[in-house]
Amino acid sequence: MPSTHVSAEGAAATAAHAVLTLDRLTVTFATPAGAVTAVDALSLSVAPGECLGIVGESGAGKSQAFLAVMGLLAANGHAAGSARFAGTELLGLGSAALDRVRGSGIGMVFQDPMTSLTPHLAVGEQVAEVMVRHLHLPRAAARARALELLERVQLSDPVRRMREYPYQLSGGMRQRVMIAIALACGPQLLIADEPTTALDVTVQAQILALLAELKRERSMAMVLITHDMGAVAGVADRVAVMRAGRVVEAASATAILKSPREPYTRELLRAAAPPAGLAPARTYATGGAALAISGLDVEFAVSRGWLKSPAHLTALRGVGFELAAGEALGVVGESGGGKSTLARAVLGLLRPAAGEVVWMGRELRALSSRELRALRGELQIVFQDPLGALDPRMTVREIVGEPLLVHARGLDPAARAEIIAAMLRRVELGAELSGRYPHELSGGQCQRVGIARAMILKPRLLVCDEPLSALDGPTQREILALLEGLRRESGMSLLFVSHNLAVVQRLCERVLVLYLGNMMELARSQDLYARPQHPYTRELLAAVPVADPEVQPARLARTRPGESPSPLAPPSGCVYRTRCPHALEVCAERVPEWQETGGGGRVACHRWRELT
Known about the structure:
With about 600 residues, this protein is an alpha/beta fold. Helix content is about 35%, strand content about 25%. Helix 5 packs across helix 6 (about 140-150) and helix 15 crosses helix 16 (about 415-425). Residues about 1-15 and about 275-280 have low confidence and may be disordered.
C-alpha cells in the first residue's frame, strides 16, 4: 500500500487553512489506443506560507495535475474530481471565471521559459501586461511596477532588460522574468513547474534561493514540482512523491529526505547523491593523445543594429588540452562559458579564429570538405535536447539507420536492418519502438535513439553536449550506465559537456572547468572534487543541491545573486575576478598563467597556492 505518513495534527491544520485542496483529482487523455490515466485520484492540500514539493520521475503526472488546476490541459485531456482554490471549485469553471483566477490568484512558472514567453514582445511589456489585464493599472504605472519586480527577482541591469526580448536573455534571466510575471498580481499561490531544469548549478541555486526568500517574505503558498530531490530540500515544508499518477509517499520534507519509507523514494534520493559521496570514474585510456587542442580561440560577430558595426564576442580564448584514446574528459561551467562552442569546434562544426584541433595526427582545418565528411564516421555527437535533435518525420528505425546510408553505402538492406536492430537492442530499445516517431517516445527513449544514431558507426570520439540536462534522476543514471558500457566495449574517447558535476564525476577521469571562454582548472576527477584549486570550481561545487533539509537551506542562504559579466565586455585580467571573494589588484592587472598544480592538474589563478 502507498505510504502517506503525515502527522494527524499537521494534515488537519493544512486542510483547514488550505489555499488549494485537491480531492481525488483524476486526469485522463483520449488517445487512439483508448483512455490513458495520467493522474489517478490525487488528494493533497497546501496552506498559506507553506511550500509543498511534488517529486517524481518524468511521466509521474506531476505537471498534468497542476495544468488541470489551471485549466491548461491539452484538448484531449479531461479532469475529474475536485480542485478548490480559496473555496472556489476550479474544475468545470468557465474560461472567463478561470481568467480571473489565473494570474491574479494563482501564478505559474513554467518549465521552459523560452517557449512560455512571447518572442516578439519586450520583457517589460510582458510583465506589465499581466497587471494591465488583471489589476487594470494604467500602462505607465504597470511598467513602473514591472521594473520593481525585475529588480526584486534580481535580474541584472533591469532598466536595460525591460527593453530586451526573450532571445537576448540567458536561461536563468528568462526564468527570473517568468517568476516576475507570476508574482505581478500578488497571487495567493505560486506553482513552479520544474523551474530549475536545464539550468547550470549556480543559476539553479540562485532560483531556489529566490523562491525560498519569496515564500518567507510574502507568506505565499507554493507548489514546487521537480524531479530533483535536492531542489526541495531547501525550500519545501512537505513533500509528496508521485509515481504513475499516484502519491506513493507524503510527509514532512525532513521525514521524506531523512527516513523515506518507500523503495521508490529511496531510489530518487540515491539519484540525488552529492558528488562528494561518489566513487571516481574508472579509467579505460589505452594509449597516447587521440585529440590534441592548442591555443583555441573562437569568435562570433554579434549584430548591434543597422547603423552599427558588429561587435566581436570571444567565446573561447586560448583553450588547450589533450584527450587520450579511451579517456573521458568532462567539461563543466555555467551557461555562456563556452562548453558547447568547444564541443562544436572539436568536431569541426565551426571554424576557430586561431589554434589547432588535431585528431589522430590530422589537423581539422587543413582537411578539405570531402576529407572532413569522410572523417565524420569517427567523430559523433549526442545533443542536449533529445526530442529536438531527432527528425519528427522519421521513424526510430530510419533515424538510427541514416548514418549507414551516408557512410556505409555498400550494405545491402538486410545487413543494414540487422545492424540497426542490434544497436537498438544495445541501447535497450525494444523492437516494438522501431516504427514509432520521436513524439511517441519519452525523453529518455529519445536520448537512447540519439545515442544509437551516434554509435552505429562505431566512432572513436563521442562528444556529448549536455545529454542528461532535461532528464529525471533515475533516467539520467540509466543513460549514464549505457554510455559507460558503450565506452568500455568500444574503447572510444569521450568529451562530456555538462553542468551536472555529479554526473561528470561518475563518468570522467579528468575535468576541465571553463568560465567566460577561459580555462580555470583542469584536474583528475578525484582531485578536483576533493581538493578544488580555483575559487570558481569551489563555487560550482558549493552550488550543487544536497538532498538534506538540515544542510541545503544554509547553502541556499549563502548563494550570491547576480549574473556573469557579458562575454562582449569581459573583465580585465582574470575574468572571474568580479565574482571572486579573494580578488586583489593583481587580478585586474594581469591574466593569470596556466600553472601546474601537481598530479597532472593545472589552474589559472594568481592566489591558488595561498588559498589552498
